[in-house]
Amino acid sequence: MAEKKLQKLFIVCALLTITIVALTALSLTTIAPLIASDLQAGSIFPLIFGLPAAAQVVSTVVAGIYVDAKGTRAPLLQGVAFLFFSIVLSGLAPNISTFLVARTLDGIGNGFTLVSLYVLVTHILDEGMQARGIAAFSYAWVIPSFGGPFLAGIIADAWQWRAIFWILAIGFLPVILFCMRLIPNLTTKDGAFTPNRRLIWASVAGAGIVMLQVGAHATFAPFYIFLGAVLGIVGIGILLPTGTLRARPGIPALLGSRGLINGAFISAEAFIPLLLQHGRHWSTAMSGILICIGAATWAIGSAIAARVQKHQQALPLAGISLCTLGLFLTLFTSWNGTPIWFLVLGWTLAGLGVGLAYPIIALLLLRAAPENRKGEVSSQMQVADAMGMALLMGFISAIYASVAHLPQPWQYLPVLGLSFIAAFLSAICALRGKTHRRQYQL
User: Fold this and answer.
1) What is the pLDDT of residues 315-362, one digit of tens each?
2) What does the H/E/C string look like for 100-118?
3) How far is residue 330's CA from residue 348's CA, in Å, rounded to a whole number?
4) How many CA atoms lie within 13 A of 343 on its CB side?
5) Which of 59, 71, 101, 294 falls 20 to 30 Å from 79 in CA-CA distance?
6) Tens digits of residue pLDDT in 262-279
7) Which ranges of 240-314 would DSSP assign to H, the alpha helix?
8) Do the Cβ atoms of 57 and 209 come closer than 8 Å?
9) How many Cβ atoms sit within 10 Å of the Cβ of residue 40?
C-alpha cells in the first residue's frame, strides 16, 4: 500500500478505535451509579474503574515486550478483540462479578491497543505529522465528549443501561473492519517473546492494586491496604525508569507527572456523577453534561498543544497547574449550599489543563526513546497512566468505604481532596521535568 494511503488508513483506524474506547469510558462514568445500584455493587463501586486499570498495568508490559519482539500486528489485533468482547460481556452481565470480569477484559484490551497505536505513530507517520498524530488521539474524544455522556444518560433513563453497551458493540464493527484492512500492512519482527522481570513485577503491582481495592472490605482491612500499597509502589519503582518515584530531574519526573495527573483527573471524574446524582439529586443525563464539558475542554487543550511548536517543554507544567486549580475548585462542591458553578468552572479548567499537558508529555518521551525501545517506552507511559489511576482509585476505595456513612455530599470531600493532592504532586514533578533536560534512561 502507498505510504500516504497507509498513513490515512492508520489515522482513520486509530481515530475510530479511540473514539469507541472514549465513548465507552465516558458513558460508563455517567451510568456507573446506575450499574452499581442495579447489580448491587455497594461499597465496591470503585472496582468498576480500578480493576481494569490493574489489568492494564500487566497488559501494557506484556504488549511492550510483544511489540519489540514481534511487531505491532498481533498485539493490535488481539487488543481490538479484547475490547469488543468486553463491551458485549458488559451488556450481558447478570451480576457485578461478571461485569467486573468484563471491565478487566477492557483493561487488557486497552493495554494491547494503546501501546501498539503509540508505537505506530512513530513508524507510519512522518516526523512532521507525529505531534498531530498523537494530538489526534485526544481529538478522538471530541465527538463522544460533546454528546456521549449526555446521550448515555438519556438512554439509561429512558430504557436501561445495558442498551448502551449493545449500541457500542454495533458501533465497534467499523473499527474491526478498518483494523482488518490496516493490520496486513503492518510489519512483523522475528524476535523471541521472552518474559522478563518487568512482567513479574507488573503482576506483583497488579496484585497489589487489587489487594488495595478489595482489602478495604476485608476483615483485616488495614493489613491488606498496607500490603497492597507497598506492592503497588514497589512495582512502580521497578517498572518505570530509575528515579521516577523520587521525581528525579528530567524525563523520570515528567513520566511521574503523567501518571499522577491521569490518576487525579480520572479518579475525580469517576466520583463526580455519583456526587451529582446522589448528593445533589441530578438526573443521569444532567450529570452527563458535566462529563461532556470536561472531555470537550480536554480535546480543546490538545488541539492548542498540537499547534505549539516552540516551548513545548513548558506545556506540561502549564497544563497540570491549570488542572490542579480546577480540581481545587471542585472541592467546594462537597459543602451543601455551594453554588454549582464552582464545579462547572473547576471541571472546565481541569479538562483544559490535562489536554494541554497529556499529548505533549507522550511526544517528548517518544522522541527521546531509541528506535528499538519505543515499544518499551510506550508501554511505560501506559503503565504510568494505569498505575497512577489504579493506585489512586485503590486509596480512594479504602477511604470511601470508611466515610460512606457520612451524610451527602460530605463523603466526597476526602475523595476529591485526594485527587487534588495527586494533581499538586504532578505539578511538582512537571516542574522538575521542565527545568532539567536529560536523556531518557531505560
Assistant:
1) 888 899 999 999 999 888 877 777 888 888 999 999 999 988 887 888
2) HHHHHHHHHHHHHHHHHHH
3) 10
4) 24
5) 294
6) 889 988 888 888 788 877
7) 251-274, 284-307
8) yes
9) 9
Say if residue 409 is preceded by a cis peptide, omega within 30 of 0: yes
Q: How many CB atoms lie within 10 A of CB 371?
A: 7
Are the beta carbons of 193 and 66 closer than 8 angstroms? Answer: yes
Contact 144, 22 (CB under 8 A): yes
How many residues belong to the chain? 442
User: What is the rounded distance in angstroms from the CA atom of residue 328 to the CA atom of residue 421?
Assistant: 9
Name residue, grid cell 489512586.
Answer: 392
**Triad 301, 52, 251: Cα angle to 5°:** 50
Q: Say if residues 393 and 311 touch (Cβ distance below 8 Å).
A: no
User: What's this model's pTM, rounded to 2 decimal places?
Assistant: 0.73
Q: Is the pLDDT of residue 435 over 70?
A: no
Candidates 310, 322, 366; CA nearest to 348 is: 322
- Rounded CA separation 139/128 (Å): 18
Q: Using an 8 Å Cβ cutoff, are 399 and 380 in contact?
A: no
The Cα 260–Cα 226 span in angstroms is: 20
Measured in degrees and rounded to the nearest 5, phi and psi for residue 94 equal -85, -15
